[in-house]
Design a protein that fits this description.
Distance between the termini: 84 Å
Mean pLDDT: 81
Largest sheet: 3 strands, antiparallel
Shape: elongated
Low-confidence stretches: none
Number of strands: 8
């Protein structure tokens, strides 16, 4: 097919064997680089039926409770490798104040769930979000840095229930230590009429930076948590 040249020719060159070899090497290099790209794969398709849990959270920063529903898809059903993994998340509430960003958050999280792979990183990302006002204490005396962080705790709880995350807890030695510290403290101070919180910790207890619970008291000159056993003295 004839090609009409619209511009003035100012120079020309012939393709030699060296140019052909270089072009072939560049093409091979691009092919090898493409082969190293890790593909996440196509998003999971939604089955007609999903199983899931709904969690209720009530915080001092919202007038009405939030209901968080996480639905799971069953992978490798009826095989020894059968397991559940999160597929989608919804958050509902009568309070419309946070509606816009909550919808955006749940859509992005659901998209990450459907992509597959390791989704547990979402827990730490959400729990590391801090409220400019300083956060709040929820029932049980545990400090929560933000509403987003509490949503992250719910996701963490769900992933633990379906086996994607290991449930935290004290081992036998740690549990024994905490029980001994509690018994020792109550023996020394309970008879003096010191007030206790609804959670069973002294009202003057400080916030433990390990478990985020107001349960740290000074014992034998050392700050010790009566909830998780964390001690500044080791």
């Amino acid at each position: 097919m004839a090609v009409k040249i619209e511009k003035k020719i100012v120079g020309y060159a012939l393709v030699n064997e060296e140019d052909k070899a270089k072009a072939a090497a560049d093409a091979q290099a691009q092919k090898e680089a493409a082969s190293k790209v890790v593909q996440l794969g196509e998003p999971l398709s939604r089955p007609d039926k999903l199983v899931g849990n709904t969690y209720k959270i009530k915080t001092p920063v919202t007038e009405h409770a939030l209901y968080i529903t996480i639905n799971d898809v069953i992978m490798n059903e009826d095989t020894p490798q059968e397991h559940r993994r999160p597929f989608e998340i919804f958050i509902n509430s009568k309070n419309m104040e946070h509606f816009q960003w909550i919808v955006a958050l749940t859509r992005v999280m659901s998209a990450v769930f459907r992509k597959g792979g390791d989704v547990t990183f979402l827990v730490e990302e959400l729990k590391s979000v801090f409220e400019p006002s300083g956060g709040y204490f929820k029932k049980g005396g545990k400090f929560v840095p933000s509403l987003v962080a509490e949503i992250g705790e719910v996701v963490e709880q769900h992933l633990q229930e379906i086996g994607m995350l290991k449930k935290p807890g004290l081992d036998e030695h740690q549990q024994k230590l905490v029980s001994e510290k509690k018994a020792e403290y109550f023996e020394k101070h309970a008879q003096s009429g010191e007030e206790m919180s609804a959670e069973g910790f002294p009202k003057g207890a400080q916030l433990c930076h390990k478990c985020n619970t107001k349960a740290s008291i000074v014992m034998d000159g050392c700050l010790t948590c009566l909830n998780c056993g964390e001690s500044k003295c080791g």
